[in-house]
Amino acid sequence: MNNKLIKKTFLGIGTMCLMVGLSLFFSCESDDTSGSGGVTKPYLSLKQYGLNRLSVANVEEATFSVTVKKHGGNLDSEFAAKLDVWNEDELNAYNEKEETSFVILPETYYSVTPSEVVLASGVKEVNVDIKVKASQIISAIQQGTHYLIPLRLNSDVVELRKGQRDLLLQLVIDYANVAIVSPEIVEKVNVNDVSVTTTVKTILDYKVDGKDLASNWDFICDLKVPENASELLETYNKQYSTDYELLPEGSYSLGQVKYAIGDHEAEAKLTIRRNAIEVKYYLLPLMLANPSTSSVTCKDNIHYIVVGQFYTNPIISDRSVADPTVIKAQDGRFYWYATQNSNDWMPVYSSTDLVNWKYEKNAFQKATKPTWNTDNAFWAPDMQYINGKYVLYYSYAKMNGTGQSHTCVVTADTPLGTYTSAYPKGAFLDSKKLLSNEEFGANCIDQFYYEEDGHKYLFYGSFTGIYVVELTDDGLAVKRDVDGNPVLKEKVCGNAFEGTNIYKKGNYYYLFASIGNCCASQNSTYEVVVGRSTSLLGPYVDKQGKKMLDNSWEPVVDGGDRTKWVGPGHNSVIIKDDAGTEWMIYHSYYYKEKGNKSTFAGRHGMLDRLQWTDDGWPYIKNYLPSESDLIPVFYK
């Protein structure tokens, strides 16, 4: 709490105590105004007596009016009196008795008008104005001087009511305070450009006689980092279980708060430079200081800002981009391919950072669609780079179309297809069947390519078992023996799974898959699960050693309590950035609870940091899609 506010609070409490003390202090004096025969003698008193407060602000004068009243006897008489200042001995005695530390305000800083009070015949009361040169003493009061104007009503011609003849006028400040407006949720600043400028809002708290007023001054305050910033950071990290670092000096510049007369609010600018920070979380504590006028104080509350280079989910939200596959192409860019939606036959996006995606085109159009099963759609693509060619595997199937699922393959010279005169923007031409229900019996969709030790494998399947076959050296056909039978066809997971994806880390192969209902919009139950094995072909097991062949698994991410996302699933290949962080791309529906709106009803593109338990199991933090996180690190 501001030290000056503490003083002001103590003064308020002290005032009540002093009022009690004054009544006892003055009650020791005689108060006999009775005359002989029971006739009351004429006497004078102060209407405002005892301890009173005069609030001073940055004005030329502050005025307190006190009334001298005539009582009893013959009111037709004329009486004269005067308000005299206590002497130092009287004030010292008072301070000692009441345990106060008042100082008599020098008479050069105030005036009493009229200096001599005359109550003419028939006049019952007269007002006396005590005018204080407020602007000249406000600085001293702010420094802690407790000024008092102690006055006593004296007269040589009339009795005085002694219990009501002393006025102690305590001078206090109506402080004008400037404070940073801190929201309930700590502000996050995303440094997503070369430099980013944000505003720090402040408000002026200025009251005179209980009324809110605007600024009475043109003044400025500095925005600054507290000297004990390192201690504040340590305390913050302990309180909120964070591991933020202090935003380094030289990475930011702080502006000033500028108030003009009549302002209630003002802002300061904070500018942060991206090239001066790393991809990590920083904390910047801020405060206000050094007001340019002594009439204003800066509250010493601390305002915290979290700084970093963030992204926010979803990373793609302009169209449905379900069942994603992402490849880093030879041109250094990432390319995202997704399941067909009503308007886009396998939309393709590109990015340099996994966060900012640009729509490029649709991989297919009517002229390049396979000529068989023309009612089928393009699902769950998987893009690979094999032997100098881009090889696109995709599912060609129909919802609830029994016996109509196929895995197809097509090659191209670039991630956007082969460029020809007929297709100047590139096209994927001459698709071929690779797997079909007729031969392989399972639901031949959701294929995933994996290469190891010179062998090329294709995993596939959806809710009728996950299988693996071996491919030829060019990856364009199933490898067969002399009798034409596949050299390998092996079941690796049970019937609970689809959307296979395998990632090797250390000695383990991690088989990611999705379970539940993928495509029921707000009622989807999709989620990503995982098992692991020391062999590519399994068996894949959960933490207890139970097999995925028996439909056991460990969770990775799900829809949780459905506060925002529902049905997250079907992840792409795990991508490691240049800092070694592993990232998972997947899709999710937006949960359209009452009041929440989405730009479309399809599946959004999502990105999340993959985390690992101490015993080596992957998961997304809290097992829920994140709101935001630090961006992936790519140095080129």
Automatic annotation (TrEMBL):
PROSITE patterns from the UniProt entry: PROKAR_LIPOPROTEIN
Keyword set includes Hydrolase: yes
InterPro entries the UniProt entry points to: BT_3987-like_N, GH43_arabinanases, Glyco_hydro_43, Glyco_hydro_beta-prop_sf
UniProt entry keywords in alphabetical sequence: Glycosidase, Hydrolase
GO BP terms in the entry: carbohydrate metabolic process
Gene Ontology molecular function, alphabetical: hydrolase activity, hydrolyzing O-glycosyl compounds
UniProt-listed SUPFAM superfamilies: Arabinanase/levansucrase/invertase
Known pathway: Glycan metabolism; L-arabinan degradation
UniProt KW Cell cycle keyword: no
Family the entry assigns: Belongs to the glycosyl hydrolase 43 family.
Protein name in the entry: Family 43 glycosylhydrolase
